[in-house]
């Protein structure tokens, strides 16, 4: 029994006329009659009562028709799901992101992707750069938003967003009345910074800026998340240099100031496993690239 036998049967059951059914199927009438006979022989029961004047379904044929229609409907649904999956339109995507990405480009990307591909379920995890690399290696996530650069050639990454650096000061700090702050004025200040292993690229950028200003920063306190760093600044534990989008995190007791000196940009990169073949991942990467150009 082949799928075409079932299609022939359903068409004949709908038309109840060999000539009309054959025309609808774009085949000659004798081959259709032969195919239906073969199907009946294989099933072991008659599907149709045939007379010279008309064709009618047998009782067994009626029951068989209902079951076959369900099978064909399920098959069509399976084909549709397969096509959607192949186009990256349904499924699940696990996305990691550094905390600061939530204050700049990530919300725009997520909104854009959900509007384009509503059938894909997004599972989001706020993770440091080093945690994301670990999760990608282990296959626990599909795409990440990290602080570059990344040396490991296991991954493929590209910069999608860049922003300036700013200084976060306690609201009681003596520099809060300045329109902007020179790095040299921070030489004797205690700094709040994240451990280097969490995001070496951004860490080295901050340290390099201070050294160019003639001092090595005294790190009085370390914190993993940028939100925590800002909270410690509010608690007058020190000052912090951070990406400017952190200003979107409004925190009582903190004042943000621009840096007088020209500073390199802090970047956010999109990362995935090299040679990633998943249609959903490819659809997401395509959306990110288009959104990042806006």
The strand order across the widest sheet is 4-3-5-13-6
Shape: rod-shaped
The SSE order reads HHHEEHEHEHEEEEEHEHEEEH
Q: Are there runs of 5+ residues with pLDDT below 50, and where?
A: none
Number of strands: 13
Word description of this protein:
41% of the residues lie in helices and 23% in strands. By secondary structure, it is of the alpha/beta class. β1 (48-50) and β2 form a beta hairpin. It has a five-stranded mixed β-sheet, with helices on both faces. The protein is rod-shaped, with a radius of gyration of 32 Å.
Helices and strands in order:
Layout: H1 3-15, H2 18-25, H3 29-43, E1 48-50, E2 55-57, H4 59-86, E3 91-97, H5 106-116, E4 120-126, H6 129-138, E5 143-146, E6 155-163, E7 165-170, E8 180-181, E9 190-193, H7 200-212, E10 218-222, H8 226-234, E11 240-243, E12 254-259, E13 266-273, H9 279-292
Parallel strand pairs: 3-4, 3-5, 8-12, 9-10
Antiparallel strand pairs: 1-2, 5-13, 6-13, 7-11, 7-12
Helix pairs in contact: 1-2, 1-3, 1-4, 5-9
What labels describe this entry?
single chain; 294 residues; alpha/beta; five-stranded mixed sheet; four-stranded mixed sheet; 9 helices; rod-shaped
